[in-house]
């Protein structure tokens, strides 16, 4: 996300621009799902390639294991993400029902909670009482305020199906890339591994760059940070396979 100029900031903070922006419904972002799926997909398959090469297995074995894990782990991660987001939504609905029940049964106590919540923000006296009165006069606003201020729940709800689909898709795309050199059997296992390493490094760096563009982070640092994270996982897999190769006497 490119930082706006001072002129742009001034234009965006005019009354009409603010009103338009606030009236626009916030859409849930899926960049975190894409980053999660991309990194984990690439780490999963390249770790298998590195571990297989370290153990002295053939490219065909690494390819079979890689694609088997690609689809199985991708589906597992998508389902896990779906269930996690679904659980968050269910928790939010449970908290909503609880707050609505409390407002019905102990409205004075709920108003006191509003009073203390905004008192902690520095409001006091007649201003504080005006806030309490205003919020408690609108039932929906009252409930939403309690969900945000007391329970710390976000107002924008994620779509579990959409998040799962994004995670699964990026997992498959990023995870398939390190496996591509293994199809070229004429290259030899060492060249295949070198190309797989280069492609995996490019994927990790690209994901880091994507994060930097979205979150306005330094481009090189974000790319290298993700590259080092993925590279560490791959190096661990390679060393594990290499050591176990000698432990079990695999030729």
From TrEMBL:
Q: Which GO terms describe its cellular component?
A: endomembrane system
Q: Name one GO biological process term.
A: intracellular manganese ion homeostasis
One Pfam family assigned to this protein is VIT1
Q: Could you state a single Gene Ontology molecular function term?
A: manganese ion transmembrane transporter activity
Query: Which residue ranges traverse the bilayer?
Result: 46-72, 164-187, 193-210, 222-244
Q: Which domain of life is it from?
A: Bacteria
Q: What UniProt keywords apply to this chain's record, in alphabetical order?
A: Membrane, Transmembrane, Transmembrane helix
This protein's membrane topology, according to the annotation, is: Multi-pass membrane protein
Q: Where in the cell is it found?
A: Endomembrane system
InterPro entries for the chain: Ccc1_fam
Coiled coil where?
none
Keyword match Transmembrane helix: yes
- What is the recorded name of this protein? Predicted Fe2+/Mn2+ transporter, VIT1/CCC1 family
Q: Which organism is it from?
A: Pseudomonas borbori
